[in-house]
Amino acid sequence: MDQSSISPIRTSRTPKPQSISDIVSRSHIIKTKKQDSRAKQIHQIRLEIQSNKEFIKQQKEQDLKAARDKVQAIKGKKPSHMKNSSSSTNIKTQVLCKNNLKTHLAWINEVERKIRMMDEQENKLIDQINKVCNIQLKTQRGEKKCLTPRPNNSIY
Q1: What is the pLDDT of residues 86-104, one digit of tens each?
Q2: Model pTM?
Q3: What is the DSSP letter of 82?
Q4: Which regions are flagged for Polar residues bias (predicted)?
């Protein structure tokens, strides 16, 4: 059997090299393909890094903008960009403003409740003073004294 008739099965599409120059050119092609694939991978990694940097930069800008809006909302100023836009940062700021508004409204309601209680106490004291004054007027006129005891929290 001839060795030329028994050749291994080739799966590659490239023809079997016949000369040294073919082998060199084929190895050069393989090397360039590897370098190209490495260059593509490096380029892809650089693009990913750049996009990550841009994303991080945008995220920082949004966080900074949100922080400024929160400060303005706490100070009671309406952020200028909230007039016509509706981004997620603005929605967060609006929620913060609503929460602050709810807190302020609760505080105002509490203060109003305390004021009403103080007004009721003041009205009670005024009624007690008027009763005492009426009793004193009646005694000065010689009318019968009221035998009801004075309240303990009376100012007289």
Answers
A1: 555 666 666 666 677 777 7
A2: 0.30
A3: G
A4: 1-24
